[in-house]
Amino acid sequence: MTLYERGKNMPWNLDKIRFLYPPDDFTGTFTNEKMQARHKAMQDQKIKELVSRLENAKGPLEAMLVLNPLEHIRFLLNNLEHFQQHQCLEQAVLQLYYRRNTPFAAAGDYDVWKFLLKSCDADRLYEQGSPFPYERVTAFRGSVTGITRGLSWTVSKENAAWILKRWEDKELGGGTVFALEITRADILVYVEDKTRQEVILVPEVADTAKVHEITSLLQI
Q: Which of 103, 108, 110, 157 is the most buried (most CB within 10 A)?
């Protein structure tokens, strides 16, 4: 595993950041010293190029994207103040969050997401999304493990109906769908586009809201 020791020209905190991943970071051994030396030279050149791009990045968001995607959360946590100073923390958090998180599939460390969302400026985070068009609406989320707590919810009845049908048979790996009444005060951001009508809840709401399990939209 290849890590980087911070140089004097590096503005970013790269603590515990892994620079190279396979096949660039080969952890085995080669059959001869010449092959080993060639691989080491290729690694050194790759790292040199990455370091140059990081040193010349115009902001933390650009610098983060230089790294392997598996290192983006670590880089964000390491350089939180830089993101806040450049007023791009909210954009970065949402980009990373929505890579893998949906109302029916949670990914990543829940407490880390809560921390990052709480570190955002509430107004800027809300402005990353769309205006919330409801006074009160039913939101839905699902879990294959039955966990009620979650940050991402959808207000799309079509999506809820689809997942209810898909998860109809628990013996075929179906999960549990939950419903919750929400207002503007309950959310951090509302995202609406061609593929989603989703909210991220205020973490305190996500932790304490009384949700109820549903098996049909007729129950709401």
A: 103
Residues of the chain with CATH 3.20.170: 127-219
> Which residues 6+ apart lie within 8 Å of 41 measured at CB?
none
Radius of gyration of the chain (CA): 22
Alpha-carbon distance of 169 to 164, in angstroms, equals 9
CA distance 108 to 73: 10
Per residue in 52-76, pLDDT tens? 999 999 999 999 999 999 999 999 9
Q: Is residue 195 exposed (0-12), middle (13-18) or buried (19+ Cβ within 10 Å)?
A: exposed
**5-19, 94-108, 182-196: least confident range:** 5-19
Grouping H, G, I as helix, E, B as strand and the rest as coil, residue 158 is: helix
DSSP 4: -
pTM of the predicted protein model = 0.90
